[in-house]
UniProtKB/TrEMBL annotation:
Compartments reported by the entry: Cytoplasm
Pathways per UniProt: Amino-acid biosynthesis; L-arginine biosynthesis; N(2)-acetyl-L-ornithine from L-glutamate: step 3/4
Function: Catalyzes the NADPH-dependent reduction of N-acetyl-5-glutamyl phosphate to yield N-acetyl-L-glutamate 5-semialdehyde.
Protein's organism: Mesobacillus subterraneus
Keyword tags: Amino-acid biosynthesis, Arginine biosynthesis, Cytoplasm, NADP, Oxidoreductase
Protein name: N-acetyl-gamma-glutamyl-phosphate reductase
Length: 344
């Protein structure tokens, strides 16, 4: 099957090339950019002699005629406009931006600060949280690929929220991300001199992933809820650690909770639940599509601590996008994604 990638010069697009270059079923038919046409290896020298396909201008009609699936690895606002051009066409679309994730246009405009896509496109898009929306993904033609923070957070909280096991008002999320999550464009905040040997909070109570997380948690909770969500930038390239604190409605031991999580995620190859007393680190999932989860129930306070780690460019973006493509086309969801994490 033929894949087209739009937005190949960003980190997410670069990861799509890395994954799909070795995929057993998909071939990269074309790669597209709004910049000058040139071999992608000039943009990414590490691809020299491995993948030298030429970046071309975006021609949506030609893409529809020639490809089976198109990955939109473009920024929000740009992705929404491109996605609209593929509406009601014979092609599957996976959007890695935030433009199709929020079902409320008003909420999108408030948090993203620009106009939303047409409501008909929002209604067509399926939220691509692979482990929890697989049945919908199989039948979908448009996928809203989840954000990086929401992926780590939702996979960590889902077994509890779907069973109404926690006080939803108690949810506090403390999350840290590597600098690649900010994208490839230059900014003062991501300069080496600013970030090295530093650790800083940003977008306090204003991060655009807040409504995305709340939207899905509210669906599982059967009523609207609000979270406290803090994001921090750490001086590493890849990785997200989300540490979550919740109050349990009933007394649960750590052992019982680990057994529950292992049961819930059995059959889901990319979620690994750690044994008691062992917590995951971001380096242990680097370059892979895994989400690793550690748990500890504090019987003294009645609170549960959940630690969830992912590679933001893989499970938080390109890896999950390919996992969703596999599901959409009826393939083994592990196809092209069974790489071992890079360590150390």
């Amino acid at each position: 099957m033929k894949a087209a990638i739009i937005g190949t010069t960003g980190y997410g697009g670069g990861e799509l090339i890395r994954i799909l270059s070795h995929h057993p079923e998909f071939t990269i038919h074309s790669i597209h950019t709004t910049r000058d046409e040139k071999p992608v290896s000039e943009e990414y020298p590490h691809l020299t002699g491995i993948f030298d396909k030429v970046l071309t201008k975006i021609d949506t009609e030609k893409i529809v005629q020639e490809a089976d699936v198109v990955f939109l690895a473009t920024p929000s606002k740009a992705s929404g406009k491109l996605a609209g051009a593929f509406l009601n066409k014979d092609i599957k679309v996976i959007d890695l931006s935030g433009d199709l994730r929020l079902k409320s246009p008003a909420t999108y405009k408030k948090w993203y600060q620009h106009d939303p896509v047409d409501q008909s496109l929002l209604e067509k898009a399926v939220y691509g949280l692979s482990e929890w929306n697989k049945d919908q993904i199989r039948e979908a033609s448009f996928i809203a690929n989840p954000g990086c923070y929401p992926t780590a957070v939702l996979l960590g909280l889902a077994p509890l929220l779907t069973r109404k096991m926690v006080d939803p008002r108690s949810i506090i999320i403390d999350a840290k991300s590597g600098v690649s999550g900010a994208g490839r464009s230059a900014s003062i905040g991501t300069l080496y001199a600013e970030l090295n040997e530093n650790f800083k909070i940003y977008k306090v109570n204003e991060h655009q992933h807040i409504p995305e997380i709340e939207q899905q948690l509210s669906l599982w909770n059967d009523e609207e809820l609000r979270i406290t969500f803090s994001t921090h930038l750490i001086p590493v390239t890849r990785g997200i650690m989300a540490t979550m604190y919740v109050e349990l409605k009933e007394e649960w031991t750590t052992d019982r909770l680990i057994d529950l999580y292992k049961k819930v995620y059995s059959g889901h190859p990319f979620v690994r639940v750690r044994k008691k007393g062992v917590f995951p680190a971001i380096k242990e999932v680097k370059g892979s599509n895994f989400c690793d989860i550690g748990l500890h129930a504090d019987e003294r306070t009645g609170r549960l601590t959940i630690v969830s780690v992912i590679d933001n460019l893989m499970k938080g973006a390109a890896g999950q996008a390919v996992q969703n493509a596999n599901i959409m086309f009826g393939l083994d969801e592990k196809a092209g994604l069974e790489m071992v994490p890079l360590y150390p």
